[in-house]
Design brief:
With about 90 residues, this protein is mainly β. The protein is built from no helices and 5 strands. The protein is flat.
Amino acid sequence: MAGIAAADGSLNVTVVDGLTRVSVYAADGSRNIAIAPGTRVGAYHPCGAWYAVRAPAATRVPRRAPDGSLYVETTPFTQCGAERVTVVAGVIP
C-alpha cells in the first residue's frame, strides 16, 4: 500500500483520466489527481480528484496555478511553492 506520503516526504499521487468517478483518495491511500486542461477549472475535477498541473521548471510558483489547479513537481525538487509529489500510478505530462 502506497499511503499518503512517500519516504522522502512528498505526497503520493495516482493520476486518473477523469472518465470514472473517484474520490480524493485512491484505494492504496495516495491522492487522486487529474491533469488540468489549461482553462479555468478550480481545485476539483468533476470525477472527484484534485486538478493538478506540472509547475514550470526551476521557478518560484504559488501553490495554485492561474487556472485554479494545484502546481505539482516530481524529483528532482527544484521549484519553490509547488506540491512535491511521487507518482505511484499514471504519468504527469
